[in-house]
């Protein structure tokens, strides 16, 4: 998807998602995680997540090269928005207990909420 089309979806649905979950996280777009972390435009690497929540800056990063359709954008926004209202210390504690992504209670909750993506279409 083109960046402008991704931004159009975000502008249409994110205010509703943020209001529903009570989040005030801001959304930023990057090609991928390598571009965001390096600060170098068009920087590339082997793998990149679809999106990410930054607890320190209260921002949701959407990685445009990973967005293939409207559903994926909405699911990513919901998933990261849910993280923005979760407790950071508890989130880290679960991972420190050697829980993996599939068994982490906060990840399970975020994936569960993604199933509501059609509500924001």
Please give a quick description of this structure:
With 121 residues, the protein is mainly α. It has five helices and three strands.
Question: Can you give keywords for this protein?
Answer:
121 residues; three-stranded mixed β-sheet; 5 helices; globular
Summarize the amount of helix as a percent range.
40-55%
The best one-word shape is globular
β-strand amount: 5-15%
- Mean of pLDDT: 92
Q: Which structural category do the helix and sheet elements fall into?
A: mainly alpha
Let me know the largest β-sheet.
3 strands, mixed
Extract low-pLDDT stretches: none
| Rg, Cα atoms, Å | 14 Å
Distance between the termini: 16 Å
Strand arrangement in the largest pleated sheet: 1-3-2
Could you walk me through the main structural features you see in this protein, from its secondary elements to its overall organization?
- This protein is mainly alpha-helical and 121 residues long.
- It is built from five helices and three strands; from the N terminus they run αβαββααα.
- The chain has a three-stranded mixed sheet.
- Helix 1 packs parallel to helix 3 and helix 3 runs antiparallel to helix 5.
- The longest helix is centred in the N-terminal third of the chain and has 19 residues.
- The protein is globular, with a radius of gyration of 14 Å.
- The two termini are 16 Å apart.
């Amino acid at each position: 998807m083109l960046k402008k089309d991704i931004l159009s979806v975000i502008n249409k649905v994110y205010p509703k998602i943020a209001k529903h979950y009570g989040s005030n996280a801001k959304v930023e777009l990057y090609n991928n995680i390598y571009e965001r972390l390096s600060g170098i435009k068009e920087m590339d690497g082997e793998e990149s997540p679809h999106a990410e929540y930054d607890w320190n800056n209260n921002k949701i990063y959407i990685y445009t090269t990973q967005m293939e359709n409207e559903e994926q954008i909405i699911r990513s926004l919901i998933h990261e928005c849910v993280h923005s209202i979760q407790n950071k210390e508890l989130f880290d504690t679960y991972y420190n207990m050697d829980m993996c992504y599939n068994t982490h209670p906060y990840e399970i909750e975020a994936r569960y909420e993604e199933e509501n993506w059609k509500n924001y279409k």
